[in-house]
Amino acid sequence: MGWTRKDLLSMRELDAGEITLLVDTAASLQEIASRDIKKVPALRGKTVVNLFYESSTRTRTSFEIAGKWLSADVINFSASGSSTTKGESFIDTAKNIAAMSPDVVVVRHSSAGAADLLARELPCSIVNAGDGAHEHPTQALLDLLTIREKKGHFDGLHVAIVGDIAHSRVARSDIHGMRKLGMTVTVAGPPTLIPPFVQELGAKVSYRLEDAIGDVDVIMMLRLQQERMTAGLIPSLREYARFWGLTLDKLARHARPDVLIMHPGPVNRGIELAPEVADGPYSVILDQVSRGVAVRMGVLLLLAGHKGGDGA
Amino acid sequence: MSSSAPRHREKAQVLDESALDRALTRIAHEILEKNGGAKDLAFVGLRTRGVSLAHRLGAKIAQIDGTTLPVGTLDITLYRDDLGMRGTPVIRGTDIPFSIKDKTVILVDDVLFTGRTIRAALDAIIDLGRPTAIQLACLIDRGHRELPIRPDYVGKNLPTSRRESVAVRLREHDGEDRVVIEEPEEG
Which of A172, A180, A290, B88 is the most buried (most CB within 10 A)? Predict the structure, then answer.
């Protein structure tokens, strides 16, 4: 089983074998985080550019740490403070960066398809670090790695993805990945925030939190993405928190005692997730972040590490 | 092993089960002799068969000396000098659950050939800490070194030609204990 892709653009394009290869590679790289000297020479002489047109804490930092632990040179580009403010277009900026011969460009952009566009236009490897409401494949991979470490396997697991599905690239990537690995996915949220495509992806739909979390192994709470919302999708934040916020009380009454609580971050405390739940014993939110570095090391290694090879 | 590699046929058997076992027993004694006992020793096996050999050497030393030495697993993929030239890198992970600081680390591999794997392993170990010393044990030394590396303990010196390959088959992986020389099939 080999890795043959130039780019990592979506979970949709991957098959179960490729997903498993990425998760296995990341799992094996995790021990680097516990070393005194967190550096291995695998990507010495490779250049990774983080091209971020949207704000990010976890993703950008973890790609940077991942690249550095693998000895790549990591350059961070953010739209503010660049020639973007002088009116340079996205593709022009990207082509100029590509002219400096990076091996991997990690891109985040508010428009769906931004990573695909770069993959077609640029000779280097492209990693999609989130494009609009489309996909965020490395987040799905780190979710999968966290689930496998905590549950030991993927077989027959049932995951509820709760909240703002419509604006969530994480939900899309997670549904693709989880379905391909044979998991059952239920999405739940107010009808205005559940797009019709989820059923085409093979997910079940629920419109009541209490029903959705009843018999699942994992509850993935999503952030209410107020910055992407046009008005009128939810009556009020307070009402959303009341019906869709996960509290200790709702967990105790409806969920299984061995359930995992996940969240891709950043958390709106007190809206989709009560602080006692976010910091509570079921929560693996910070484990997800740690796994994120391992997953991004795996992705960079597979993309940059096999280049120049004949694939034999 | 790549699936596109030419098929190999067995040319000669080098060690059978009892000869392999005797070689390991001798190496265990030599390790104790050279280090004046088992104090502050630790084994690190190179994936995959070096790990099994390291565990066997550990068991022999436990029999002889009564000391149970720690055994770790090293994956040197991230340290290879030909990463990217051999297709998809397969990372299976390093697992050394003990400190190697102030230990004499005995690195164990099945076949010593060019020395490039050992070069990578030395870098990988030193990145984990500062051992007192690193010694090298290998079951087969087949020559053709490309780097100034020599083993401290050798099961068998085996002059080979470069086109031949040496296959170490171990119970844990292959269901049998023996070492054979293989050569590519013609045509």
Answer: A172
